[in-house]
Structure prediction request, 121 residues.
Amino acid sequence: MLVADDAAAPASPWVQRAREPVTAKRIAAWQEEITERDAALIDWVVGRHLRSFGYPRVASAASIPSVARGLAFAGFDGIRRRLPQIPGVWYHLMQPTKLAKEEFWVQRDLWNGGARSAGAR
Prediction:
């Protein structure tokens, strides 16, 4: 039978809370952790779905500049995630018949011993 090894678990606060019983103590704790502008953007993106599940609106309507800022951030984040793939795509376009080298560039993280973490993608 598998037994949890508490010593191997990271010391993050959320890990410790996840092992505690469910309580109503942290209801609406997110309202203290995000800004009013972030709450307005969240409501702008998923507000219709939140209200269909009975959640009330907690922020004023998002302003046009904050929506533009949020969309720009999302666009730059998408580009940042795709940048590591450029060498593999470039190599595929320039040398399409050398499969071993192409696979190296596509999966270079695995070949280099997983130097980058999976969360960086």
Summary: The mean pLDDT is 80.
